[in-house]
Amino acid sequence: GNICRSPIAEAVFRKLVTDEKLEHKWRTDSAAVSDWNVGRFPDSRALSCLRNHGIETTHKARQITKEDFQTFDHILCMDESNLRDLNRKSNQVKDCKAKIELLGTYDPQKQLIIEDPYYGNEKDFETVYEQCLRCCKAFLEKYH
Q1: d(Cα 36, Cα 68) in Å, to the nearest integer?
Q2: Residues with catalytic annotation?
Q3: Cα separation of 99 and 69, whole Å?
Q4: For residue range 10-62, what is the model confidence (pLDDT) as tens digits?
Q5: Spacing of C-alpha 141 from chain mean position
Q6: Which tens digit of pLDDT belongs to each residue from 87-104?
Q7: How many domains does the chain have?
Q8: 99 contacts 74 by C-beta, under 8 angstroms
Q9: Domain containing 92: what range?
Q10: What is the mean pLDDT of residues 128-134?
Protein backbone atom coordinates (compact mmCIF):
# COMPACT_ATOMS: atom_id res chain seq x y z
CA GLY A 1 0.00 0.00 0.00
CA ASN A 2 2.98 2.45 -0.19
CA ILE A 3 2.82 3.48 3.48
CA CYS A 4 5.64 1.49 5.12
CA ARG A 5 8.65 0.06 3.29
CA SER A 6 8.67 2.07 0.08
CA PRO A 7 8.31 5.50 1.70
CA ILE A 8 11.15 4.58 4.08
CA ALA A 9 13.36 3.55 1.15
CA GLU A 10 12.39 6.66 -0.81
CA ALA A 11 13.19 8.99 2.11
CA VAL A 12 16.47 7.21 2.88
CA PHE A 13 17.61 7.33 -0.75
CA ARG A 14 16.59 10.98 -1.12
CA LYS A 15 18.65 11.87 1.98
CA LEU A 16 21.68 9.96 0.67
CA VAL A 17 21.40 11.73 -2.68
CA THR A 18 21.03 15.11 -0.96
CA ASP A 19 23.99 14.44 1.35
CA GLU A 20 26.12 13.61 -1.70
CA LYS A 21 24.81 16.72 -3.50
CA LEU A 22 23.47 14.61 -6.38
CA GLU A 23 19.84 15.83 -6.36
CA HIS A 24 20.20 17.09 -9.94
CA LYS A 25 20.97 13.54 -11.13
CA TRP A 26 18.16 11.62 -9.41
CA ARG A 27 14.38 11.65 -9.40
CA THR A 28 13.17 9.62 -6.46
CA ASP A 29 9.63 8.46 -5.75
CA SER A 30 7.75 5.47 -4.44
CA ALA A 31 4.47 3.86 -5.41
CA ALA A 32 2.36 0.81 -4.70
CA VAL A 33 1.19 -1.91 -7.03
CA SER A 34 -2.26 -1.66 -5.41
CA ASP A 35 -4.49 1.35 -4.83
CA TRP A 36 -5.33 0.61 -1.18
CA ASN A 37 -3.85 3.68 0.49
CA VAL A 38 -3.69 6.25 -2.32
CA GLY A 39 -3.44 9.76 -0.89
CA ARG A 40 -2.49 8.67 2.64
CA PHE A 41 0.65 9.67 4.49
CA PRO A 42 3.07 6.90 5.53
CA ASP A 43 2.29 4.80 8.60
CA SER A 44 2.96 6.77 11.80
CA ARG A 45 5.55 4.17 12.84
CA ALA A 46 7.42 4.68 9.55
CA LEU A 47 7.38 8.44 10.07
CA SER A 48 8.57 8.05 13.66
CA CYS A 49 11.39 5.73 12.58
CA LEU A 50 12.53 8.19 9.91
CA ARG A 51 12.34 11.12 12.34
CA ASN A 52 14.50 9.17 14.81
CA HIS A 53 17.15 9.13 12.07
CA GLY A 54 16.76 12.81 11.22
CA ILE A 55 14.80 12.22 8.02
CA GLU A 56 11.56 13.98 7.07
CA THR A 57 9.19 13.05 4.27
CA THR A 58 6.09 14.61 2.73
CA HIS A 59 5.26 11.49 0.71
CA LYS A 60 1.66 10.54 0.03
CA ALA A 61 0.83 7.03 -1.16
CA ARG A 62 0.18 6.58 -4.85
CA GLN A 63 -0.24 3.70 -7.28
CA ILE A 64 2.38 3.00 -9.92
CA THR A 65 1.51 4.23 -13.41
CA LYS A 66 2.38 3.15 -16.93
CA GLU A 67 4.42 6.34 -17.23
CA ASP A 68 6.59 5.22 -14.29
CA PHE A 69 7.71 2.22 -16.34
CA GLN A 70 8.53 4.52 -19.24
CA THR A 71 10.34 7.28 -17.35
CA PHE A 72 12.21 5.70 -14.44
CA ASP A 73 15.44 3.83 -15.09
CA HIS A 74 15.03 1.65 -12.00
CA ILE A 75 12.00 0.34 -10.15
CA LEU A 76 13.05 -1.37 -6.95
CA CYS A 77 10.69 -3.46 -4.87
CA MET A 78 10.70 -5.26 -1.56
CA ASP A 79 9.55 -8.85 -2.09
CA GLU A 80 8.79 -11.53 -4.69
CA SER A 81 5.08 -10.75 -4.77
CA ASN A 82 5.75 -7.12 -5.72
CA LEU A 83 8.43 -8.21 -8.19
CA ARG A 84 5.99 -10.58 -9.90
CA ASP A 85 3.23 -7.93 -10.01
CA LEU A 86 5.57 -5.24 -11.35
CA ASN A 87 6.96 -7.53 -14.04
CA ARG A 88 3.39 -8.43 -15.07
CA LYS A 89 2.40 -4.74 -15.25
CA SER A 90 5.57 -3.81 -17.14
CA ASN A 91 4.74 -6.39 -19.83
CA GLN A 92 1.60 -4.36 -20.59
CA VAL A 93 3.58 -1.16 -21.11
CA LYS A 94 4.94 -0.20 -24.50
CA ASP A 95 8.49 1.17 -24.29
CA CYS A 96 9.15 0.04 -20.71
CA LYS A 97 12.66 1.23 -19.91
CA ALA A 98 12.74 0.56 -16.17
CA LYS A 99 14.94 -2.18 -14.79
CA ILE A 100 12.75 -3.92 -12.21
CA GLU A 101 14.48 -5.72 -9.35
CA LEU A 102 14.48 -6.34 -5.63
CA LEU A 103 16.09 -3.58 -3.57
CA GLY A 104 17.55 -6.39 -1.45
CA THR A 105 19.80 -7.50 -4.32
CA TYR A 106 22.02 -4.58 -3.28
CA ASP A 107 22.23 -5.59 0.38
CA PRO A 108 25.84 -6.29 1.42
CA GLN A 109 24.38 -8.54 4.14
CA LYS A 110 22.48 -10.53 1.47
CA GLN A 111 19.01 -10.00 3.02
CA LEU A 112 17.14 -10.29 -0.27
CA ILE A 113 13.62 -9.65 1.05
CA ILE A 114 12.57 -6.59 3.01
CA GLU A 115 9.61 -7.83 5.03
CA ASP A 116 6.49 -5.70 5.47
CA PRO A 117 6.54 -4.31 9.05
CA TYR A 118 2.87 -3.27 9.03
CA TYR A 119 1.71 -6.01 11.41
CA GLY A 120 4.85 -5.74 13.51
CA ASN A 121 6.24 -3.21 15.96
CA GLU A 122 8.72 -0.33 16.04
CA LYS A 123 11.64 -2.78 16.00
CA ASP A 124 10.40 -4.18 12.68
CA PHE A 125 10.31 -0.66 11.20
CA GLU A 126 13.86 -0.11 12.43
CA THR A 127 14.92 -3.35 10.70
CA VAL A 128 13.34 -2.10 7.45
CA TYR A 129 15.15 1.23 7.87
CA GLU A 130 18.52 -0.49 8.37
CA GLN A 131 17.98 -2.77 5.36
CA CYS A 132 16.91 0.17 3.18
CA LEU A 133 19.91 2.21 4.30
CA ARG A 134 22.38 -0.58 3.43
CA CYS A 135 20.70 -1.31 0.10
CA CYS A 136 20.29 2.33 -0.93
CA LYS A 137 23.93 3.11 -0.12
CA ALA A 138 25.10 0.16 -2.23
CA PHE A 139 22.69 1.03 -5.06
CA LEU A 140 23.85 4.66 -5.11
CA GLU A 141 27.48 3.55 -5.04
CA LYS A 142 26.90 1.29 -8.03
CA TYR A 143 25.05 3.84 -10.17
CA HIS A 144 26.71 7.11 -9.12
Answers
A1: 18
A2: 5, 116
A3: 9
A4: 999 999 999 999 999 999 999 999 999 999 999 999 999 999 999 999 999 99
A5: 17
A6: 999 999 999 999 999 999
A7: 1
A8: yes
A9: 5-143
A10: 98
